[in-house]
Target: Septum formation-related domain-containing protein
Amino acid sequence: MTTMRTRRALMLAGSAVALTVALTGCSAINGILGNGDADRDEETGQVTESSNVGVFAVKLGDCMMDTGTGVLTDANILPCDEPHDQEVYYEITMDDGDYAEDNINAASEECIGDAYTSFVGVAYQDSALDVTTLTPTKESWEQANDRVIQCIIFDPAGQTEGSLAGAGR
Model:
């Protein structure tokens, strides 16, 4: 449904380390869309208890466990004050049009630009933290009108508790 890409690997190695996430038809997309959402605080929208949700239900500000490798159809999200691996800190919505991997790669560079600096408090190249992205696949683009790139921050040293907003490292 989406593809994971580690941005630091892209910058340092010149090529993305990607978790290729593919769907095999409309039934898989319909299953993802139908998984519902986690329990959320009505005012803040923050997750109030751990839940396994379809990947389309992951929202800006959500914290989650490592998505692993292989086909990504769901995610384990949880309150950010609990130990977690990743946090969605920024979203980019692509314009309609034909699916183009190059356009998605170019747009996802925003994840390590001003959005990163504003969120963390230091520039990406000066930070100890790392970034990965959830991006549309050709199938999700064409079959589910998926246009959102989610920028996800994580600490390569291990799990964190609380948001990494303003971490300054």
